[in-house]
Structure formats: C-alpha cells, structure tokens
Specification:
The protein has 137 residues and is an all-alpha fold. The protein contains 7 helices and no strands.
Length: 137
C-alpha cells in the first residue's frame, strides 16, 4: 500500500471511525454529485475528500471529478454500478465446462482480493490503535 492510499484511509478513519473501513458510504448518484462538486469547489485533495465523506476510492473520485467537470451533474447520474454486461457466447457445451471453471477461478480471485483488502484494513486499524496508545503514554 502506498503512502497516498494510507493517508486517505487514515483521514477517513480519524473522522468517521473504524466502521468506515468495512462499511463505506453507500454510493448513489447524489453522493457522486455531492462529492465531486465539493471536491472541485474546494480544490480538495483525496485525503480531504476522505475526511469529509468517509470515501476512500481515489480512482473513482478522480473519475467523478473529471466527469463532473466535463458533463456537469448529469454526467454522474448515468453511471451504472458494476461491469458492463458481456455479449452472450454461443459456444459448444464442451467449452461451457471450461467457462464454469473460469467463473469459479474468478470468484476465488475476487475472494482472495477481498480478504487481502480486509487484512490490510485490519493492519491499518491495528497500526492506528498502536499509534494512539503510544501517543497517550
């Protein structure tokens, strides 16, 4: 984890508490618009945005600010959550088993990534708590 990402997580944690690391704010069109417009108006850094909104997705913040700057609030209303749907494949059934295996592999990779993120968040929380304990001594 790089320093910038760590700083963003710390800012969100300090303002919103440990719950924000595991239960981030619900992302709605209104949330994207509010976050992007505030960030642009205040020329805010990712750390400042994380502190204000409890949101730590820097890539999304950057994209939302860019869309808002180019298209205004209406540009953020049309964003769909998740991946774009794939075109259906018309493959023989023998290849379908391979696709099922690939799907399972993808699910396992997603689970590993989720666990790695959760592990990093727990390490961050322990580090913050240790810093707090050391500063109180």
């Amino acid at each position: 984890m790089d320093e910038k990402t760590f700083g963003v997580l710390i800012a969100a944690y300090e303002t919103h508490g440990p719950d924000v690391l595991f239960n981030p704010p619900k992302v709605t069109a209104e949330f994207r618009i509010t976050l992007a417009s505030w960030a642009i108006r205040n020329n805010a850094s990712y750390t400042e945005i994380a502190s204000k909104f409890g949101y730590t997705g820097t890539a999304q913040m950057r994209a939302w600010k860019e869309i808002y700057s180019k298209l205004g609030p209406n540009g953020l209303l049309s964003i769909q959550k998740g991946r774009k749907p794939k075109m259906p494949n018309k493959k023989p059934k023998s290849v379908k088993k391979l696709t099922e295996q690939e799907n399972r592999l993808s699910q396992l990779e997603d689970e590993v990534l989720r666990l790695k993120i959760e592990n990093e968040a727990l390490k961050l929380l322990a580090s913050i708590q240790q810093r707090t304990d050391n500063s109180q001594k």
